[in-house]
TrEMBL record:
Species, as recorded: Kitasatospora cinereorecta
InterPro entries for this protein: Amidohydro-rel (IPR006680), Hydantoinase/dihydroPyrase (IPR011778), Metal-dep_hydrolase_composite (IPR011059), Metal_Hydrolase (IPR032466), Metallo-dep_Hydrolases_sf (IPR050378)
Name of the protein in question: Dihydropyrimidinase
NCBIfam families listed in its UniProt record: D-hydantoinase
Entry's family note: Belongs to the metallo-dependent hydrolases superfamily. Hydantoinase/dihydropyrimidinase family.
Pfam families listed in its UniProt record: Amidohydro_1 (PF01979)
Cofactor(s) required for function per UniProt: Zn(2+)
Length: 467
């Protein structure tokens, strides 16, 4: 087995920071030792990696991606191959993507189809959540089987009537089943029925520009749905994970529930922390680049999101990576904002943007690792295999240069999309080297990975709950 030593870096995990050397055998971390000690100096290795001046951090865990998702009459532009390669470039070594149940079809059919897309194509490890688009007796039963094979979380939609939408009765049934089998219910919390009325009215008034996407998807309708989801989960005795929280009032709903001791969790995304309705209102059709759901909010909401991340009322930052090209895809909504495919690219940018948040003083260095690596791993049953650097963990490790600078741009990114939502943004910090299960996949600006290195990761149930 290849023995690798990473020497002289600052190891940062959610729990601690220490100047330590890391010993890897094959795909696993086998030991850490304070740097300069005789233990570490005695290690012999086939390969030594010099990490002086660098952070040695766990590979990022992005628990919310949509590679090649069929949506809005088109399909997300990153395949599992291109999207996981971009993830690796950005220091993310595990993604959890969403397999989709079609209405009238079995969960199995959807899951098999997503395995087919991913198998043999991924540069880094991956798992699946399952989108429940058709809750019925047989799909409820199938949930148990999926949990047993490591697909332990299920996304439901209060939005998108006619596509993914579930009514409250179906939601309650799925939550009851999840309470029983350990599956974690993930909620897209927006009142889609009300939103569709507002969409129709806006279009009738000739309001067709991208910025109206943000106006009709009202904050109140995110807060209302978040509140309703929490109450339904309480009735079902089920934990709840609310995805892509963007509104301050939705954070307040989560905080109130958590203060009551309810097992309610919240995720936000870099786009809500760094972008705003100002972007949606960019001239011409530019705003289409920023159309996603939940929508970007006025800038004032950002402070509540950062505060939520600091107080742990929000626990995870994932990307909801769902890229559509500006030319040829976002275009579908010229003259009708409701036809712009919803989604933003970001899987490559998350670790850097959150490091910038450390530099800017929004979060601490350890909190960076907690919200981007450790907590998503625990939330979705991957810890400590993923999300930390400890004896026995997979050697998914990033050497991160905290002083290097870079400018985010579509000219240099690796995602298969023709624009960047963060074009021109200057970042202090940059990925130097990325190991995925002990294999160097990125090193100093060169890609060494290959499709098929990434393996499916069966997951345990949520590790924040006693079962
Ligand atoms: N939101 C998006 O922006 N894209 C895909 C699905 C979703 O809920
Ligand atoms: Zn969603
Ligand atoms: Zn609180
Ligand atoms: Zn999503």
């Amino acid at each position: 087995m290849t023995r690798t030593v990473i020497r002289g870096g600052l190891v940062v995990t959610a729990a601690e920071e220490m100047h330590a050397d890391v010993l890897i055998e094959g795909e696993r971390v086998v030991a850490l030792a304070a740097f300069g000690t005789s233990a570490a100096e005695g290690w012999t290795a086939d390969r030594e990696i010099d990490a002086r001046g660098l952070y040695v951090i766990p590979g990022g865990v992005d628990a919310h991606t949509h590679m090649e998702l069929p949506f809005g009459g088109t399909s997300a532009s990153d395949t599992f191959e291109t999207g996981t390669r971009a993830a690796a470039w950005g220091g993310t070594t595990t993604i959890v993507d969403f397999a989709v149940q079609s209405v009238g079809a079995a969960l199995r059919e959807g899951l098999d189809a997503w395995h087919e897309k991913a198998q043999g194509n991924c540069a880094v490890d991956y798992g699946f959540h399952m989108i429940l688009a058709d809750v019925n007796e047989s799909s409820l039963k199938e949930m148990d089987l999926l949990v047993a094979e490591g697909v332990t979380s299920f996304k439901l939609f209060m939005a998108y009537p006619g596509v993914f939408y579930s009514d409250d009765g179906r939601i309650l049934r799925a939550m009851q089943r999840g309470a029983d089998n350990g599956g974690l219910i993930m909620m897209h919390a927006e009142n889609g029925i009300a939103i569709d009325v507002l969409v129709e009215q806006a279009l009738a008034e000739g309001k067709t520009d991208p910025r109206y996407h943000g106006e009709v998807r009202r904050e109140l309708l995110e807060a209302e749905a978040t509140h309703r989801a929490i109450k339904l989960a309480q009735v079902a005795g089920s934990p709840l994970y609310v995805v892509h929280v963007s509104a301050a009032s939705a954070v307040a709903e989560l905080a109130a529930a958590r203060d009551q001791g309810l097992p309610v969790f919240g995720e936000t995304c870099p786009q809500y922390l760094f972008l705003s309705t100002d972007n949606l209102a960019e001239p011409g059709f530019e705003g289409a680049k920023y159309v996603c759901s939940t929508p970007l909010r006025p800038k004032e909401h950002q402070a509540a999101l950062w505060r939520g991340l600091r107080t742990n009322d929000l626990q995870v930052v994932s990307t909801d990576h769902c890229p559509f090209c500006f030319v040829g895809q976002k275009d579908l909504g010229r003259g009708d904002f409701s036809k712009i495919p919803n989604g933003l690219p970001g899987v490559e940018n998350r670790m850097d943007l959150l490091h910038q948040a450390v530099v800017d003083g929004h979060i601490t260095r350890r909190r960076w690792i907690e919200i981007a690596c450790a907590t998503p791993a625990r939330m979705f049953g991957l810890y400590p295999r993923k999300g930390t650097i400890a004896p026995g963990s997979d050697a998914d490790i990033v050497l991160y240069d905290p002083t290097a600078t870079q400018t985010i741009s579509a000219d240099t990114h690796h995602m298969n999309v023709d624009y960047s939502a963060y074009e021109g943004k200057e970042i202090t910090g940059k990925v130097r080297t990325v190991l995925s299960r002990g294999t160097v996949v990125v090193d100093g600006g060169t890609y060494h990975g290959r499709p098929g290195h990434g393996r499916f990761q069966p997951r345990a149930t949520c590790q924040y709950l006693d079962r």
